[in-house]
Amino acid sequence: MQQFTVHKIGPEIKIAGIDLSFTNASLFMVISASLICLFLFLSTKQKKIIPDKLQLISEMLYSFVAKMISDTAGSKAKPYFPFIFSLFVFVLICNMVGMLPYAFTVTSHIIVTLIMAIFIFIAVTVIGFIKHGFKYLSIFVPSGVPAVLLPLITIIEIISYLSRPVSLSVRLFANMMAGHTMLKVFGGFVISLGLLGGWLPLSFSVALTGLEILVAFLQAYVFAILTCIYLNDALNLHH
Amino acid sequence: MTNEEDFKTRLKIAKLKVQKKILSESEKKGSLMGSAFKLGTELVAAVIVGTIIGFILDNWFGTKPWLMIVFFFLGTAAGILNVIRSANRMQKK
């Protein structure tokens, strides 16, 4: 579909045989990132004791993420706050920017979400090994299992561990892609039914737009909270 | 003097009440919807990963369909394990 196509903007750049051209996907990532930076800069420029509206929004965002981390991953996860905050805000703003007409939804491409998920997966594994050494491997061996079943359970646990990045990335990508496709399909119905019957699908697509904004927020929330849960597993071994 | 102190304690109590209410309400709704979206992919992802692992191992050892079939079922087991885990996590909240 036209809204999901990636095309080059500007000249083609090739470094060592890898295509590094600037595309519309990269453009919208830059837009989202600079929107976040601009907003956070403007809202915290004047640090008032009684905050104005902008400052209030950014403070609420801060405390929302801080509470999410302390609830799911405990106080040990405090040093990772900057990472999870930027992850959550970036995914959220990318989803929201994608809701604007004519915009490109960066998170509806599996390559973007998969790279983020793989990065999280590798980071969490490295953190686990740094904190616990080879004892970290004990998350694959649950306690209280009979010795006969142990090899089987260990293989199942390893598959379950490896499936984390896949489920994390597919969830975000599939939700965004399905939502935008559904909007497109209902938009097509409006055109094909014309002036007489087009009002019903039109009202549907208005309602779906509301739903999509909810989904855009929820998926960013789920992405961040699952990162916290994985971080919790790596920081506190208690299986 | 006493009036002021009285007011302060009352303010504190009221603030705590409001905070608790807002937090519990918004959190319940958010996490419920979030986990509803979560469970489906949790199951499917493990099956896909298991099958892919089986496929790769098959190519290594040259045992074409067998390891893939075995790992498909192991992946299904892992997926069910994932779903049970996240359901348990939801119940704890």
Give the helix tally of chain B: 2
Query: Could you give the count of β-strands of chain A?
Result: 2
Mean pLDDT, all residues of chain B: 78
Q: Estimate percent helicity of chain B.
A: over 70%
Rg of chain B (CA only): 25 Å
Note the gap between the termini of chain A.
Answer: 45 Å
Would you kindly provide a written description of the structure presented here, covering whatever features stand out?
The complex is a heterodimer of chains A (239) and B (93). Chain A has 239 residues and is an all-alpha fold. Chain A has one domain (2-235). Chain A is 70% helix and 2% strand. Chain A has helices at 24-43, 53-73, 81-98, 110-132, 150-197, 199-235; strands spanning 14-15, 18-19. A two-stranded antiparallel ribbon of chain A has the order 1-2. The longest helix of chain A has 48 residues, at 150-197. Chain A is globular, with a radius of gyration of 22 Å. Chain B has 93 residues and is mainly alpha-helical. Chain B has one domain (2-92). In chain B, helix 1 packs antiparallel against helix 2 (64-92). The mean pLDDT of chain B is 78. The A-B interface holds A 67, 152, 155-157, 159-160, 162-164, 166-167, 170-171, 174-175, 214-215, 218-219, 221-222, 225-226, 229 and B 23, 30-31, 33-34, 37-38, 41-42, 44-46, 48-50, 53, 71, 74-75, 77-79, 81-82, 89.
